[in-house]
Amino acid sequence: MVANKSKKQEKPPSPSLGFDPIGFLMDPFPSTKFETEHWEKSPLHARGTEEKKSFLTNLFNLDSLKEVARERLMKKEDEGDEEEEGEEEEEEEDGPLLFGQDVNAARYLNGSKEVPEEEEASEENITALFQKGYTMQVLQPQRYSDGIWHLVSAMEKHLGCLVGCNAYITPAKTQGLAPHHDDVELWICQTQGTKRWKLYAPLAGFELPNKPSQDLPQEMIGEPIMDITLKVGDVLYLPRGTIHQAVAQEGGSTHLTLSTYQNWTWGNFASTLIHTALEGQGEVEGVALPIELRKSLPKGFLGSTGLQAEIQGRTGSGCKVGSRTAAATLAAGLRALADQLEEEEEVLLPAAADAFAADFIRNRIRPHPALLPDQGPPPMSLDDSVIGRGEGLFMIVPVDGPDDPTVPEGFVKLCTPVMNSRYYHMMRVSDADAEEDEGNSDEDDDHGEDASHHHHHGHDHVHDGCCGHKHSKGGSHDNKGEDEGGEHEDSEDEDDEDDEDDGTGLPGPLTPASYAPLVADILSCTSAPGIKLRSMVEKAPHCSEEEVLRLAFSLWRNGFVRTIPATSKTKGISTSKGAQDSKIKCKGGKGEAQTAVKEDSKQSHKSKTLKDVTRETAEALKVSVDKEPGKRASTDDPAVKGSKKSKRGAKQ
Asked: Acidic residues compositional bias: what residue ranges (predicted)?
């Protein structure tokens, strides 16, 4: 289903949002001061500036939700409309919004929570429930609002971490949930009406928690450390662990919660690093735990540790000695691991970081168009220059060639979120987690104010609050190359050989590992004048001119680079005496971009002129050089087809 083109145009945000979204939200408080004095330390209220008020006012509200509900029902009527030639529109779900999947609703009467019996979040049901005092929580409204998409995309780019968003639409004089704390960093952005917030210091031992809390009784949390009423344009930052509760004032309230840094701690990274080392021995050279941690547990280990051993130790039976010995042995092993990290930081650390990066690339939202420069025309000459289309948007990962006969050894995969889904961002869960939650969605998922802050990370669902994250753990070893919470779980096409599962769980073209240094140089350069392709030949004498041009063309075709055409009138070059100037002339049709680089390694170009090579590349890629810059291939193109997302399954 194509995106609805009738949606009203939203006001463009301040330019500062694109390069410093945290500074934009915290203005007029200096962003550097915010990072040193408040980040992970204490709440901060940033009053609305004119720019923030202009951007946030009615960015999302009850009318917005009703409009989305109407449009989702109307989409089937537009299914027969054909897209304009060459125009790329991402598929969007059709059918009604559903409670528990797209919208949560709840109200609290006399301390008891009520959730609606209706399954369909239609305009009529939403209106009736809201009038009865139900709070509406809209999961990931960046799926519907371009302005929120812009904000979330900018924050993910700036922080280098996944960012989720929920909208909360609360009737006047109602409170959606009891006091609680969350396991995410939160920015609360008021978009309509006013809301009074009471904040409390974290409970002892629960500073920067890695799990959300249950509902907390008033007598446990003490006196508030901040009592503030948010107005439209105001932003409130809450470090994870900050206990909070809120009540909508006269006229009702709508606010957004932007949440991040879930499972994104040194502890999570250490867990990934240890698992990477366990799995890496024998597969990745030098990646292994120290011998102290590879030794077996002692005989009878379980009998000397745990609750029974602790009770026996208190009775003086001597079992305490075994537990103490085990602790000392493990501590020695961890110290050996710490020594190994410091002595060989280039081995274990990058492998774990790559796992975190793969999770981020797999699950982040596709960049907002305002944050992604146009591609320009295709590179047609070694006198052209290319630049990467953005920092942090691309990564090079190894592939499991030896375990997959279809993937030759010595190849790497180029990955990017440029073709990720906007409409499934933070909305997918793993099969295991879906099974874990099956049967209790009414109890755990249907919440109102500050609901769904913690979802589907492979451990018990504790409490629903502010975050609404639905993605795999950062670099989690539970991924095993699968799309836990990602956008590509069901999107791979059996006929798209370069997007098949090669152990990375990431879509993208393959390229010979010998090209990786060239690719890294190109993608790391993100500003003009860029890198001239001819200089790439000089830097990599093992690559011919034809190979460099073919590589640049494939990077352009897959959306990785932008071309800066040569200013010279002479576009062509020759690679042998008598060769004519070459210029790619392409026709529309199916593209085979992802095989272009791969096939390049299978044949020699020594006997061909650049004109021959570029003509063959153009015929293989079949993309019109006359089409408007930034436009994509047709949906028959494997490069596009692999990124199209299937509809979400049953209620999760």
From this structure: 79-95, 432-448, 484-503
